[in-house]
Amino acid sequence: MGRWEPGGSSRLREAALELFLEQGFDETTAGEIAQRVGLSERTFFRHFGDKKEVLFGGSEEFQREMIAAVADAPVGPSPLGVVASGLAKAARFFPDEARDYSRKRWRILGENPALQERELLKMAAIASGIGAVLRDRGVPEPAATLAAESGITVFRLAFERWLAPDEHRPLAEIERAMFVELGAVVAGS
Amino acid sequence: MGRWEPGGSSRLREAALELFLEQGFDETTAGEIAQRVGLSERTFFRHFGDKKEVLFGGSEEFQREMIAAVADAPVGPSPLGVVASGLAKAARFFPDEARDYSRKRWRILGENPALQERELLKMAAIASGIGAVLRDRGVPEPAATLAAESGITVFRLAFERWLAPDEHRPLAEIERAMFVELGAVVAGS
What we know:
Two copies of one chain form a homodimer. By secondary structure, chain A is mainly α.
C-alpha cells in the first residue's frame, strides 16, 4: 500500500501504473515509463530507485506511521483496543483521493506473486513492530503478539474491502466493522 | 517446520543442522555436509534438491496435511472451532521426538532473515488454503479469512512455545491454551 503522492513524481507514477496494467510489471522497463511522459530514463531514476519503488515507495514511512500510531494510542481497555485505536489513526494515510491509485496498485500486485510476497512481508514487519510496541507498553506475551497479528489481519481485510469497486466508506469505518466481525468469529468458537 | 524423518537421509540432515548451527546456513555447502558423514556431494543431491530442502523438505506435505485436517474437521459450532479442530489433528505432524530437530531448525531460521521469510510465506500459504477450505464449507467472508488467519496466528505462537527449552506439553495442548488466550485478547477489546 505504497503512498499516494500528489505532484513531483506523479506523472511518472501514473504512467508506470498504466504500463504495469497494460503489459505487466515484469514486462515494463523504466525507460518505457519515462518515454510515455516524454522524460528520460535518467529522470525516472532521479525519482525512483527502481520500478518496484513506484509501488513500494513510502512503505517505510507507512510502516513507521502505523507502529507510531499504536505506540501513541491512549491507554485502552485492552491491547487489541490499543491496536484498533492506532490503526484508526493511521487510516488517514489512505484518504479517499488515494483510493483510485490504491485500486490500480492492488490489481498490479494481484497479477504478480513476487510483488504480493513483498507486500506480505511488509505487513508481517508491521505486525512484528506493533507487537514490540505493545510489549514496551507492558503487555505480556502471548497477548502482545496475538493483538498485533489480529490487528494486522483486520487491517488487511479492511484495506481489501476499502478497495472494492462498490465500497465507499472510509477505511477507519471499515476497520471498526471488521473488528466487530473478528469479535464474532472468536466469540463463537 | 520441515518434517522430521527417521532413517534414510537422517544422517545427512543431522550433519547439515550441525554445520548450519556451527558456521551459518549461507556459509555451508552441500559438499561439506556430505563430507562430514563420509558421503559424496552427489549422494547429498540424491536426497535433497538443495541445502534449503534440508530445512523445508516435507513443507508441502505439512501444508497439505494442515489444510486437509481443516477440510475434514467435523462440523463445529463456529469457523474458528473448525480451524482449531483441524490444527489439533495436524499437531500429530509434530510428535515429541521431532522437538529436538525442530528446535535446532528454529535456531537456524532465527539467524537467517531469508529463511524466516520463506517460513512466513509458507504459513501465509497455509492460512490462504484454510480460508479457501472454509469458504468451500460455506463460511462467508470475512469470517472465513478471519478464522483462517487467527488460527494460523495461534498455531505459530503455539509452535514457538512448543520449542521453548522449558516447555514439555504436547503441541495440541499448547494450541488449546493459545486459543483461550486469543479469546481473552479479543473479548477484552
